Amino acid sequence: MLETGRKSKELEGLSLLGNQGTKYEFGYNPDVLETFDNKHPNNDYFVKFNCPEFTSLCPITGQPDFATIYISYIPGEKMVESKSLKLYLFSFRNHGDFHEDCINIIMKDLIKLMSPKYIEVWGKFTP
Known about the structure:
The chain is α+β, with helices and mostly antiparallel strands. It is built from 3 helices and 5 strands, in the order αββββααβ. A hairpin with a 6-residue loop joins β2 and β3. The longest helix is centred in the last third of the chain and has 16 residues.
């Protein structure tokens, strides 16, 4: 079990993790993303997220587009907190953009957030 002081230090700056009053954004919102310190910044290792329930809206028809988003990165000093990432991806639900734009927006937001050593973001969209 973690010491109370150590646990609170590790959670410092994370407002979403463990928060029971989560607010869901229904419009694109990169401000929901949060980071924490990488405990192993000198090691090059992959962090991978597979997000199988991504949706956005077609900017022409307004119909929902469904995808699995794959995010792989080698962290630098900071890492993305997974609950905030889920809420961020959910914020695309009513966002109207083409598939390629959504993928590039996600990648650019994650680069801006944490300056990873390497990042790869791709989507497998259904017709």
